[in-house]
Amino acid sequence: EQKKIKSDKLASDYTAVEIISNNQSGSSYYQWCNINRNTYIMVNGTQYTMTKAEGIKIAPDKTYFSYAGQDITFTLYFPPIPTSATSMDLIESADSEWKFYGIKIR
User: Looking at residues 30-57, what average pLDDT do you find?
Assistant: First the structure.
């Protein structure tokens, strides 16, 4: 699997989602990646837009991989969500493969 949610954290002043991504894709690999600044989470019908990213560049800047099969771990930050939330969706954009639905909040 090329990307997966490692963890999530709900704090009083932010929501953080930690993601692991691997650049391998079949017999080839990606040389770089980035995240769209309009990436958002959807919780109970409310959209929360990303406020900060650590460990990955925001487009158009690029985070470069050093070798094929490399993992990178990065954290995306969003405004705080209700403590009663039990799941969320994370969506980069309509045309991106970066869509995670039904993320269980731990």
Answer: 96
